[in-house]
Amino acid sequence: MNRFPGANELSSAEFSSLLLVAPGFISSGAISKAHQVRLVQLGLIQRALGGLLPTPAGRMVARIQIGR
Questions:
Q1: For residue 2, is it within any domain?
Q2: In terms of residue numbers, what domain contains 32?
């Protein structure tokens, strides 16, 4: 990945899902499978330990967009 995807590349629902994962580990059932697939493809979250974790890029995208 050459750059971080911005919130404008996510639907509002996908961005909301990212915000749920951004603080830390959550159950994989907390967000839809479609959102999980998209956010993993973008490198914003990862599957681990039976749940979902934000990647450093995912945390940064969530923080940058919240601050605007």
A1: no
A2: 11-66
26-27, strands of its sheet edge to edge: 26-27, 51-54, 45-48
CA distance 23 to 6: 18
Helix (H) or strand (E) holding 34: helix 33-41
**Strand (E) positions, 1-68?**
26-27, 45-48, 51-54
pTM: 0.86
pLDDT tens profile 16-34: 999 999 999 999 999 999 9
* CATH code of 55's domain: 1.10.10.10
Spatial separation of the C-alpha atoms in residues 16 and 12, rounded to whole Å: 6
